[in-house]
Amino acid sequence: MAGAWRPIAKAEFLVRTVKLHRARKILYPALVGFCLLFVLFATPNIVTFFLGEFGAGLDLFLATSLPGVMRTIVLVIWLAILIFPISNSLENVKTDQWDILFSNNVKTRDILLGTYIGKLPIYGLLGLALSSIIVVPFVIIYNVSLIGQLLMYSITILFAITTIWLSNVISTALHAKIGQSPRGDDIAKALSWALIPIIALPTMGAMYWTEQVTSLMRLEVSMILPSTWVADILTWIAITTSSLPPSSVFNLQAFWFQVSPIISLLLICGFSIAIYVIGFKSADRLFSLGSGLGSSRVITVGSENIAIRGVRRLFGAKFGVIMATSLKDYTRKLQNVAKISYAMFLSLIIPLILTSGPLTNISNDPIFVPLMTSLSIAMMLGIFGGVVFGGIGLLDSQDQLWILKGAPHGVSKFIAARVISYMMLGIILAVIPAVFAGILLGLPASTIVVIVLYVYSIILGGIFIGIGITAFNPSYSDSSSSAFAINTIATIFITMIALIVGLIPAIIMAIEQGVLGPALTFAAIPAPLIGLIILFAGTIKLNISEVV
Amino acid sequence: MTLKPNPSISTHFREMLRRSDCLYTFGNNLPIFCKELPIGKVGKMARNDVVIRTEQLSKSFGSIQAVRNLDLEVFAGSRFGFLGPNGAGKTTTVRILSGLLKQTSGSATVCGFDVRKQRNAIKAITGLLPESPGLYSKLSAVEFLEFIGALNNLSGKSVHRRIDALLGMLGLESRRNDLLESYSSGMKQKVLVASTLLHEPKMVFLDEPTSRLDPSASALVKDLILVLAEETETTFFICTHMTNFAEDTCDIIGILNEGALTTLGSPQDIIDQLGASDLEEAYLKIVGGQVDREKLLSWRD
Q1: Which of B98, B126, B139 minimises the CB distance to A329?
Q2: Distance (Å, whole) CA A76 – CA A323
Q3: Which CATH number fits domain B7-18+51-287: 3.40.50.300, 3.40.1190.10, 3.90.1580.10, 3.30.413.10?
Q4: Hey, are the CB atoms on B138 and A332 less than 8 Å from each other?
């Protein structure tokens, strides 16, 4: 069917803008207008403000190292535009729509083109907003002419929409490979979490180790990245259309450009054409649904491991079974393992930042360093504790809730088992990063124990708050629901409040009296207490709830 | 109309029931594993004892009246079929009777327990098969049934013997240790049937028990119901759209339309009273739904 990409693009657009719903015709142009205002006025003012705050030193650094900084920033933004749509689409693998399309005699390349065009109005705006972050610093520091600015915006937007195409092709391939099934859904959600460090690593690098990363980006190996080609083209346009003296332009080019910007331009053009051609050529293969990863393998459970057997013995015949079930159900889900791994990854990065990032020069303070370490790790894991163990980890579906409600005191027993099993998993989450940080920072064993206990108490607070809020307003397994979004925001907000309530007096106590143990003990109390109140309230609400 | 299970299948079930070691005790004995549960207070329900009684039972969700003034009596050991179109209020009624929802007005008792005040007592002696499967995808059938047993205060070897017997009976023996995520919808439904019967409820609520099953599995569930009702005096309250299934399985039919009970009687009585050839025709006469041929093609204009 010729031209079938148009209705597909329209359907995709309607899906992507579903939150605008009936007011779409007014709200979408308003969104475009807001985005343009952001690009034309907000970004220049924000960047000017920050450049002013950091003073002449930053100006000088940027004037000489901007091409390197730009390679880093473009890399981060490129990865964000590439990975976020893939990660987002993996939250909900749906291939049954393809059957409808194919049964209507639609060509695979029409589906690919239609979904791409349909995504552009939203992701394109994201690309435009992000491109302003790339272009504006050049404009301000190098005083780039208007033509130069227009050229730079054109290049970044073209690169952004090419990246969206690549992202669309990759996510389509992943959907076909994984397939729509309960296991496929779990694999896809795990993958969506596993992709986040690809963005997080360079972002954190750019934030905390700017100079080191900038030097790294000067290495020839960075020339394999399309983002480097684009960054170099932007630099070239900026310096040649700027008011810089010719000698400065020559020096910057000689220092930074391993290859001529013309070659970079040819490379990026070739890359763009190639990925469009490869995408269209491979459309038939991309959409070939086989037995996806999710349904190709039947997993048979073996005998229980020593930990599960221990849990059964510890909690007795009846509650032990519910506990064992809760642990098996949670830990067998790849998405949960991925979330815990991600939380662990971030909490292991924190001590690295403390030892080699901007706080290096105060790393010998016996109170400040362990205090900062404890607070940073606890803040990260407290929030993650709530989001990872509450949220969609609590109940899979409303039907599951009915089954629990069908048993006498079923909901209470289930919530108790969930909480205790998460508390057990929380021990691992608290001990590993805290001990790693302690060893890396050379802290005494007693201090490490205090940090472990503090971090664990905050994780408990997060778990109680997360489960309590989810029990109040179950979001089940739908991470795209408004209930999930509200619960996540509420969990983060309340955990932060609970953390701060203990934090402020603890910091004052630690600084004024120079005592770490009592300060952290004091700081550890509010979060679990507040959490327990929310947990009990949520459990009561779940027990009496009447959802149809 | 006399309802009889398929002799060869029912013999097989009876044998399985006997071999399953205390899965459904026969005669007057109460099951020993229910000591902790209020089932002891229920005592023996003789046939003709009323196990479900509702008086002016109503339930509203905001402005929507899901159930209106329902007056109903269901007797012990009977197989009560609750028919009605989508949204008629069948599931809501079942949820009220099984202690999951509170009624807006009226009263109801199940095995003598008040549905408003004694919900946990009702849950202990009833089994509910929900409309759609809410299984744990990352558990095997055995692990899931063990979990359901534990929620109902059952544990130990006797539960495992029951699980083995039920899974064998339902043809899932070879897949017992596979994760439920790999089960077909029919297999999931069978696991749910097993989970509903595991704690030997005196009263079983089945919400669309055969909607996902193939004909042979439906026949199996039908025979299981007939044998259990006959041998153990278990009462079945079955919500279904399947008029054939209801006609073959149930001894009393109630038809619910827009929240109100419109018809009550044996399948044959309902068919005779409406001058229909079968229950489907009688059902359509009551709730409507017959469309003339001309109207069926009108969308093409």
Answers
A1: B139
A2: 42
A3: 3.40.50.300
A4: yes
Residue A407: its chain B contacts at CB < 8 A?
123, 148, 151-152
Contact B138 A328 (CB under 8 A): yes
Q: Provide the residue ranges of all domains of chain B, joining segments of one domain with +.
A: 7-18+51-287
Q: Do B136 and A407 touch (CB under 8 A)?
A: no
Question: Going by C-beta distance under 8 Å and a sequence separation of 6 or more, which residues neighbour residue A206?
Answer: A72, A73, A76, A213
Kindly calculate the radius of gyration of chain B based on its CA atoms and give it in whole angstroms.
19
Look up residue A438 and give its two tokens.
Answer: 């302690």
A481 CB burial (10 A radius; 0-12, 13-18, 19+): middle
Question: Are residues A400 and B135, on separate chains, in Cβ contact within 8 Å?
Answer: yes
Q: Which residues of B touch A416 (CB under 8 A)?
A: none
Q: Digits of tens for pLDDT over chain A (548 positions)? A: 557 889 999 998 998 888 787 788 889 999 999 999 998 888 888 888 877 776 666 666 666 677 777 788 888 888 888 888 888 888 877 777 888 888 887 888 888 899 999 989 988 888 888 888 878 877 887 788 889 888 998 999 899 999 999 999 998 888 888 877 778 888 888 888 888 888 777 777 766 666 666 666 666 667 788 988 898 898 888 888 877 666 666 666 666 666 788 888 999 999 999 999 999 888 877 777 655 566 667 788 888 889 999 999 999 888 999 999 999 999 999 989 998 998 888 888 888 877 776 556 655 666 777 788 888 889 889 988 888 888 777 888 888 888 898 899 999 999 999 999 999 999 999 999 999 988 888 888 988 999 999 999 999 999 999 999 999 988 887 777 788 889 999 999 999 999 988 888 888 888 888 888 888 888 899 999 999 999 999 999 998 877 55
Residue among A389, A328, A356 at smallest CA distance from B150: A328
Residues of A in contact with B92 (CB under 8 A): 548
State the nearest Cα–Cα gap between B2 and chain A, in angstroms.
33
- Is the separation of the CB atoms in A233 and A268 below 8 Å? yes
> Is the Cβ pair A408, B124 closer than 8 Å?
yes
- In this prediction the ipTM stands at 0.75
Q: Which residues of A touch B150 (CB under 8 A)?
A: 317-322, 325
